[in-house]
Amino acid sequence: MRLKRVLPLAALMLCTPALAGTAPALASPQEAAASGGPLRILLTNDDGYNAPGIRKAFEQLTAAGHDVTIVAPLTNQSGSGTKMMSAASVTVKHPEPKVWAVDGTPGDSVSFGLAEVFADRAPDLVVSGTNFGPNVAGLATHSGTVGGAVAALEHGIPAIALSTGGVSAPDPVTTVNAMGPTVDFAVKLIDRLRSRARSGPLLPKGVGLNVNHPVVGADGKGTAAGVAATFQDPQTLLEPDFTDAGDGTWKVTVKVALRPAAKGGDIEAVSAGRIAVSPMNADWNTGPADTALTSALIAGLRP
């Protein structure tokens, strides 16, 4: 799992602190874009390059004035997590301008995009999504949408993972309808990041945002009840059940085993119809308290 560390919300939510002064003469691409003008965005996902969520995001982010390029999986890669670079070669298609389809995972897509499509200059931001279904709690551990964002963070690029859905999944048509409001919010969030960053990066180095937008209303087109600064609920949502078929195979069924939501967590927010925005990072570190615990644990131990 790449989201083990829970970062201080007050310091990281929605923006970096505004920096005084003007941009330096030799600002990085991220710093230059943050000071004004459209962002260069690498757009990926885990549902596939032609899925409705990524196309909606491309349409609305482009309409907002950003320079958006899709570099996403050729096929559905839901649940692929942070998997990447598992083959000696990769097939890449370029079916239309501003669209690249990579026959691999979201992580493979982002890596290819940064190395080849954006070889001349890194994008200012990677947006992964929006996809079908939430990526809250333990679901984020296995999410290809989150995995695409993590791949960007590992390369030092600010990233946002974007998901649409409630804990109890509505029908696909309703979820597609809700993808419009999801991307509307993403546009506002990106504008907020850009306006507050001024001459600095959009987010602190190594930090991304995991955004989960609920499905609101019978048709999915309703307005969320608000926006909440959250953390990843520690519970695991999916519970597999294995049945021995007696012939060396096992039948597998998976059910949602929802326990009481952690106060202030992403499940609580989405279940209440609010947009959950959780900071995340791309490594396995926890925090100073846990480091101290480990030091005490190994004190006196010898090989």
* Mass-distribution shape: globular
Helices, by number, come to 9
- State the helicity in percent bands: 25-40%
Helix-strand pattern, N to C?
HHEHEEEHEHHEHEEEEHEH
- The fraction of residues assigned to DSSP E strands is 15-25%
Protein structure class: alpha/beta
Low-confidence stretches: 1-32
Largest sheet: 9 strands, mixed
Q: How many strands in all?
A: 11
| Rg computed from alpha carbons, rounded to a whole number of angstroms | 20 Å
Spatial order of the strands in the main sheet? 3-4-2-1-5-6-7-11-8
Average pLDDT across residues?
83
Task: Quickly describe the structure.
The chain is an alpha/beta fold and 303 residues long.
Please tell me about this protein's structure:
The protein has 303 residues and is of the alpha/beta class. Helices cover 30% and strands 22% of the residues. The protein has helices at 9-12, 29-34, 52-63, 106-117, 139-142, 144-154, 172-197, 266-271, 288-298, and strands at 40-44, 67-73, 92-96, 99-102, 125-132, 159-164, 207-213, 226-229, 238-244, 250-256, 274-281. The strands form two sheets. Strands 3-4-2-1-5-6-7-11-8 form a nine-stranded mixed sheet. The longest helix has 26 residues, at 172-197. The chain is globular, with a radius of gyration of 20 Å. The model is unreliable at 1-32 (pLDDT under 50).
Task: Considering the chains and any ligands shown, give keywords for the structure.
303 residues, alpha/beta, 9 helices, disordered N terminus
How does the SSE layout of this entry go?
Blueprint: H1 9-12, H2 29-34, E1 40-44, H3 52-63, E2 67-73, E3 92-96, E4 99-102, H4 106-117, E5 125-132, H5 139-142, H6 144-154, E6 159-164, H7 172-197, E7 207-213, E8 226-229, E9 238-244, E10 250-256, H8 266-271, E11 274-281, H9 288-298
